[in-house]
Specification:
By secondary structure, the chain is of the alpha/beta class. It is built from twelve helices and eight strands. The chain has an eight-stranded parallel beta sheet with strand order 1-8-7-6-5-4-3-2. Helix 3 packs parallel to helix 4. InterPro entries: Aldolase_TIM, DapA-like.
Length: about 300
């Protein structure tokens, strides 16, 4: 079993499409290089922001294979696992390992909302099927499943379960997790609008959204926070906040793709049922992005 260094910035990578809806690997390559150049620490593919819900299983593995070639071992490459059945989840984990993934981010079972016992059994079955390190995604706001401390107590019996993407939006949970599990469970803040607060409370790192378009600014905030230069971090963070708020909306994919496309790091295209922004909403989101670009801090 490999151990990942679960510290630093792990972008939840966008999946760029051509206008006809096919995968745009050229643009993906541009974004990967921008992330690495900024100093990020790992990449997560085919997550919610990567439009997992509209990608085929084959496409997820295509993204993984392409990313592994492009990254060439410079940072860990993780694949997101989001399946409806335990059997499919196990098959997916085994295939990701076979293709060379460095780790998995695993969501609770989709569609069927399991009770605590069922959710624990699902995660443990996946963990027992692979040697890959696992990041458990705890996001009760968007996925209706809350993974409690008692559930983590059971999950951590599996050595491959090593980290949590903490998206409960309850900052006290970081301290509860740390008090209960010490360093056995690494904590990655999973909500853009509280990512600095998460780091200051002792999170090991962050899984970010707006980092897709703004890797250097995200890295600067992380770096300053780690060095204890909090006032400087806060200054950049305040500039960043209107953009970060794009991450906590049901249309985060459209919004963040639009932002990243304005800085040449994505295309704006999404797959249906997501549609292009129109009218007042389009104007409002464009204005938020354009205002931020006009006052972008000198790093």
């Amino acid at each position: 079993m490999a151990n990942l260094n679960w510290s630093g910035i792990f972008p939840a990578m966008l999946t760029p499409f051509h206008e006809d809806g096919t995968l745009n690997f050229e643009m993906l390559s541009i974004n990967i290089e921008a992330q690495l150049e900024a100093g990020i620490h790992g990449l997560i593919f085919a997550g919610s922001l990567g439009e997992a819900s509209v990608l085929t299983t084959d496409e997820k593995f295509e993204l993984l294979t392409y990313a592994l070639k492009a990254v060439r071992g410079r940072v860990p490459v993780l694949l997101n696992l989001t399946e409806n059945t335990t059997d499919d989840a196990i098959a997916f984990a085994k295939k990701a390992e076979q293709l060379g993934a460095d780790g998995l981010m695993v969501l609770p079972p989709m569609r069927y909302r399991g009770d605590d016992r069922e959710v624990v059994a699902y995660f443990r079955a996946v963990a027992q099927s692979t040697a890959l390190p696992i990041l458990v995604y705890n996001n009760p706001v968007d996925y209706a499943t809350y993974i409690s401390l008692d559930m983590f107590e059971e999950l951590l019996e599996e050595p491959t379960i090593q980290a949590v993407k903490e998206s409960t939006r309850d900052l006290t949970n970081i301290t509860r997790l740390r008090n209960r599990f010490g360093d056995r469970l690494k904590i990655l803040g999973g909500v853009d609008t509280i990512f600095l607060e998460s780091l200051l409370l002792g999170a090991d790192g962050v899984v970010g959204g707006l980092v897709d378009g703004f890797p250097k600014e995200t890295f600067a905030i992380y770096d300053l926070a780690k060095k204890g230069e909090v006032a400087k971090a806060v200054e950049i963070y305040r500039w960043f906040m209107p953009l970060l708020e794009l991450d906590i909306h049901p249309k985060l994919v459209q919004y963040i793709k639009l932002a990243a496309s304005k800085v040449g790091l994505s295309t704006p295209y999404t797959r249906a049922p997501r549609l292009e922004l129109i009218g007042e909403e389009k104007e409002r989101i464009n204005k938020i992005i354009d205002d931020a670009l006009a006052s972008r801090p000198k790093l």
